[in-house]
């Protein structure tokens, strides 16, 4: 991006209204209790490879995504897009794309060391759960944005910002006792 374009965006951002910070502090004992409970909750999270087909309320999905969207981001660019997929045909197409990429990962792309390191997980490129799960949340990073005048804007630390949002999403899902599955093999699914 040229400097002049960045300056233009910078100026328009200066007009943004200040959001006041509100905060109330817990007594020390309460802090310890809450931190212990939160740790215990998160310590129960597991990456499972079998997922129930039981429907989940969309309100829950909306809320966990809203929670993820509270993440900090480089220069407050919020460089993420969450896409919720429920349609069985679309889910199946996603599964096909991922399995095709994963097969290449296992058979040639990642190499024998990776395949050996993964042996303990007993995984392969077949991902039935992508059909079974009632909802898939696809997370995209936005490598740049657009200013109101249509010019490209920089999304600083976009991958780190999206990773933090993913972490919050996982924690929010754990609060609901729903399970999640990370799939890193295809770049458009995670990061
Ligand atoms: C970035 C990332 C990529 C991952 N990719 C895969 C994957 O492709 N397939 C898979 O079965 N698990 C994947 N996992 C899950 C890890 O294997 C899992 O987090 C790890 O074994 C620890 O287990 P836990 O999540 O149950 O604590 C991934 C996790 C992360 C954070």
TrEMBL record:
It holds the Pfam family Nitroreductase. Residues 43-166 form the Nitroreductase domain. It catalyses: iodide + L-tyrosine + NADP(+) = 3-iodo-L-tyrosine + NADPH; L-tyrosine + chloride + NADP(+) = 3-chloro-L-tyrosine + NADPH; bromide + L-tyrosine + NADP(+) = 3-bromo-L-tyrosine + NADPH; 3-iodo-L-tyrosine + iodide + NADP(+) = 3,5-diiodo-L-tyrosine + NADPH + H(+). Residues 1-20 are annotated as: Disordered. Its EC number is 1.21.1.1. SUPFAM superfamilies: FMN-dependent nitroreductase-like. Transmembrane segments: none annotated. This is Iodotyrosine deiodinase 1. Catalyzes the dehalogenation of halotyrosines such as 3-bromo-L-tyrosine, 3-chloro-L-tyrosine, 3-iodo-L-tyrosine and 3,5-diiodo-L-tyrosine. During thyroid hormone biosynthesis, facilitates iodide salvage by catalysing the oxidative NADPH-dependent deiodination of the halogenated by-products of thyroid hormone production, monoiodotyrosine (L-MIT) and diiodotyrosine (L-DIT). The scavanged iodide can then reenter the hormone-producing pathways. Acts more efficiently on 3-iodo-L-tyrosine than 3,5-diiodo-L-tyrosine. It is an enzyme of class 1 (oxidoreductase). Belongs to the nitroreductase family. GO terms for molecular function: iodotyrosine deiodinase activity. One of its GO terms (biological process) is thyroid hormone metabolic process. Keywords: Flavoprotein, FMN, Oxidoreductase.
